[in-house]
Write a structure and sequence with these properties.
Helix content of chain A: 55-70%
Radius of gyration of chain A: 24 Å
Radius of gyration of chain B: 29 Å
Number of domains of chain B: 2
Number of helices of chain B: 2
Shape of chain A: globular
Strand order of the largest sheet of chain A: 1-2
Order of helices and strands of chain B: HEHEEEEEEEEE
Structural class of chain A: mainly alpha
Shape of chain B: elongated
Oligomer: heterodimer
Helix content of chain B: 10-25%
Strand content of chain B: 25-35%
CATH topology of the domain at 22-280 in chain A: Cytochrome Bc1 Complex, Chain C
Strand content of chain A: under 5%
CATH architecture of the largest domain in chain B: 3-layer Sandwich
CATH superfamily of the largest domain in chain B: Rieske [2Fe-2S] iron-sulphur domain
């Protein structure tokens, strides 16, 4: 029996009510204004998440979550399995790029005030997905069972132990016992491959659904511009641009994985001292650096180290509730206090991170030179463009 | 209550009943789960003494220290001279990393957050809030011509 495409389509349309979805997609538009490029950040993070799902599933075929086998199984993936080095390196690189774009997405949404009503829940689900992304990073970091991972997990779980009242329980809950060991590895694996993905997929679906319901937010300062310019149709114009970005991203991923395969390091040894220059993933660097500079001591039964930990927790909560705290933005479209606070936080995070990586000073010099050249060339082009009739 | 119609009273009673049943059901499901996710406490055989090895152990001589298993706890043994050996808990009191001895500086150092202890285990710089717990060290003669053996015991 031959089935024609049209027949199949009408068969599915009748049963899945796809007509509505297709109609909505056909009419979906994206506002056009000078901040439009920032609309691509979220989609970029989404792309890297998809890469994580696929490479993660592939890694599960060889990985063994036990203290005596985990390191060896990752070594096996890196050295013996055909293209194993590629899959694992892409997984690691993509994880970092995903977090980077999630942060960039958060920052642009924050500064362009896209959390204004009715998008409060879009913001909250987005923040929660970012927090889950960090939890993915933290739990995944331990899985190769190397020295770096071992100490990062010791420190990270000990930090959770500083939470008042429930700290002790939380520490044992995270570690699966009193110490970081095989029990911790089993738990982290369970979260990393089952619990976190399940929760993330649900929240991400809600987040994307909200975006479809409300459309893209137009920043208040570009409202006039967006009104004057004709919106771009999502299909095919915006989607094709996004696809172009994703193709580029895949190329970058493959290049990074091939040129800089992810290191494995030494197998975790619970009885070896922490080595020099030990550091966590770059996105935890600012917290790590802060903890380094807090002296030891106790005030009212609270250890000094607990204070920054609690403050970071509080900052996370404030971030989550921004749409409800920033009331002024609803009336005027402006909230300079929040912009200033966000800028201060950004300066602190970038500053503390750069300070943590101060041993990379030569790299900074190269990047700074590149940035100056880029800014100058952009400036020249704009001046040239304005000069033309 | 007398003014209310009996049906409202019945409805409220049934709602309360349903709510309590639902609550009890939820608790009966959540309680075992909560207990399940809290890892059981496993009793550990208590260690009172551990033999580290001969006093001229190459690691002790070369690096000046050695991390030993004291039950499940790491203990650092620092050798200052053939007769002056000291031992402390090797878990940094800040965030639980394992410390090392820096021969050049004659200090005990934690690389995770630059915590510094002196050779009595006192926290003297950086984030650590408390001193390292000291352990007892003694040398046991092994007979003529043999190097003495280092033994570490609980404070």
């Amino acid at each position: 029996m031959r089935i024609s495409a049209t027949a199949l389509r009408s068969f599915l349309d009748d049963r899945l009510a796809l007509g509505g979805v297709r109609g909505a997609l056909a009419h979906k538009t994206v506002p056009v204004h000078r901040y439009m490029p920032f609309y691509y950040f979220g989609g970029m993070a989404l792309f890297f998440f998809a890469v994580q799902v696929i490479t993660g599933i592939l890694l599960m075929l060889y990985y063994r979550p036990a203290a005596g086998e985990a390191f060896e199984s990752v070594e096996f993936i890196m050295t013996t399995v055909p293209f194993g080095w590629l899959v694992r390196s892409i997984h690691s690189w993509s994880a970092n790029l995903m977090i980077f774009f999630a942060f960039a997405h958060l920052a642009t949404v924050f500064f362009l005030k896209a959390y204004r009503p009715p998008r409060e829940l879009t913001w909250i689900t987005g923040c929660l997905v970012l927090f889950l992304g960090l939890a993915f990073g933290f739990s995944g970091y331990l899985l190769p069972w190397n020295q770096l991972a071992f100490f990062a997990t010791k420190v990270g779980t000990d930090i959770a132990g500083a939470v008042p009242l429930i700290g002790g329980w939380l520490l044992r809950f995270l570690r699966g016992g009193d110490r970081v060991g095989g029990g911790t590895l089993s738990r982290f694996y369970g979260w990393h491959v089952a619990i976190l993905p399940a929760v993330t997929v649900v929240l991400l679906a809600l987040h994307l659904l909200q975006v479809q319901i409300h459309g893209m937010s137009v920043p208040p300062q570009t409202a006039d511009e967006a009104r004057q310019r004709r919106p771009m149709r999502f299909f095919p114009h915006f989607a094709l641009r996004e696809l172009f970005g994703w193709t580029l991203a895949l190329g970058v991923l493959a290049a990074l994985a091939a040129l800089f395969p992810w290191e494995l390091g030494e197998k975790a040894d619970p009885f070896a001292p922490a080595f020099q220059n030990i550091r966590p993933e770059w996105y935890f660097m600012f917290m790590f650096e802060t903890l380094k500079h807090v002296p030891g001591g106790e005030i009212l039964g609270l250890e000094y180290e607990a204070i920054p930990i609690l403050l970071f927790g509080l900052a996370g909560l404030v971030l989550l509730l921004v749409p409800f705290l920033d009331r002024g933005v609803v009336r005027t479209g402006r909230s300079p206090a929040f912009t200033a606070a966000g800028f201060a936080a950004l300066v602190y995070i970038v500053g503390a991170t750069a300070w943590g990586y101060r041993s990379l000073a030569p790299v900074y010099a190269v990047l700074a030179t590149g940035a100056v050249v880029a800014i100058l060339s952009l400036g020249t082009r704009r001046a040239g463009g304005e000069g033309q009739p | 209550m007398a003014e209310e119609s009996p049906s409202i009273g019945r409805r409220r009673f049934l709602s309360w009943f349903l709510g309590t049943t639902g609550g009890a059901f939820l608790v009966s499901v959540l309680y075992p789960i909560l207990r399940y996710v809290s890892p059981p406490r496993i009793p550990e055989a208590s260690t009172s003494e551990v033999e580290v090895g001969p006093v001229n152990d190459p690691e002790l001589v070369e690096k000046g220290f050695k991390i030993v298993h004291f039950g499940a706890d790491p203990v650092i043994v620092v050798k200052l001279s053939d007769t002056d050996l000291r031992a402390f808990s090797a878990s940094c009191t800040h965030l639980d990393c394992i410390v090392e001895f820096r021969k050049t500086k004659q200090l005990i150092w934690c690389n995770c957050h630059n915590g510094v202890y002196d050779l009595t285990g006192r926290n003297i710089a950086g984030p650590p809030p408390k001193p390292l717990t000291p352990y007892r060290v003694h040398l046991v003669a092994k007979g003529p011509g043999q190097p003495a053996s280092v033994v570490v015991g609980k404070g």
